Amino acid sequence: MVYTDGIHVTADTVDELYKYANTLNLDPDLIILIGRNIYSHFIIAGDVTELVLKDIRVRRVTCREIVKLCQLNFRLPETNDQLREWEHHHKKFLSDLQTPSEAKYEKMLSNIFKRANYTK
User: Fold this and answer.
1) For residue 42, with 0-12 CB atoms within 10 Å meaning exposed, 13-18 middle and 19 or more buried, which class applies?
2) Which of 1, 2, 47, 118 could serve as 113's disulfide partner, Cβ 3.0–4.6 Å?
3) How far apart are CA 87 and CA 73, in angstroms?
4) Measured between alpha carbons, how far is 54 from 110 in angstroms, rounded to an integer?
């Protein structure tokens, strides 16, 4: 699911966010990665805002909900309450998730560094 508050656009996964940005012809290098963990989102303005707000595939939420969604989607839960909330939001249990192989993890890091214009 893709979400917006009219200023920010985020999604349940980074892949989903990039795919949606691609439909809007947004430069993937404009994704913002901030905070203690990755909080992936785009800031939109002008014509892009108009397109996003008219898109029926995008759920409109408040700014506070954008922050909460970023925490739920891009940050591991630290307390039991956060774990329950995460599991409820994702409709699965954290303990059931597969850990990526070392090769996939390295590829993911490599892609992040490429997008950030860093070399590893």
Assistant:
1) buried
2) 118
3) 11
4) 35
The full set of domain ranges for the chain reads: 2-115
pLDDT at 34: 57
Q: How many CA atoms lie less than 13 Å away from 79 in the CB half-sphere?
A: 4
User: Which residue type sits at 94?
Assistant: L
Measured CA to CA, the distance from residue 11 to residue 14 in angstroms comes to 7
> How far is 8 from 15, CA to CA, in rounded Å?
16
Query: Tens digit of pLDDT for each residue in 28-66?
Result: 777 766 555 556 788 888 888 999 999 999 999 998 888
Q: Distance of alpha carbon 12 from its chain centroid, rounded? A: 6
Helix/strand/coil (H, E, C) string of the chain? Answer: CEEECCCEEEECCHHHHHHHHHHCCCCHHHCECCCCCCCCEEECCHHHHHHHHHCCCEEECCHHHHHHHHHHHHCCCCCHHHHHHHHHHHCCCHHHCCCCCHHHHHHHHHHHHHHCCCCC
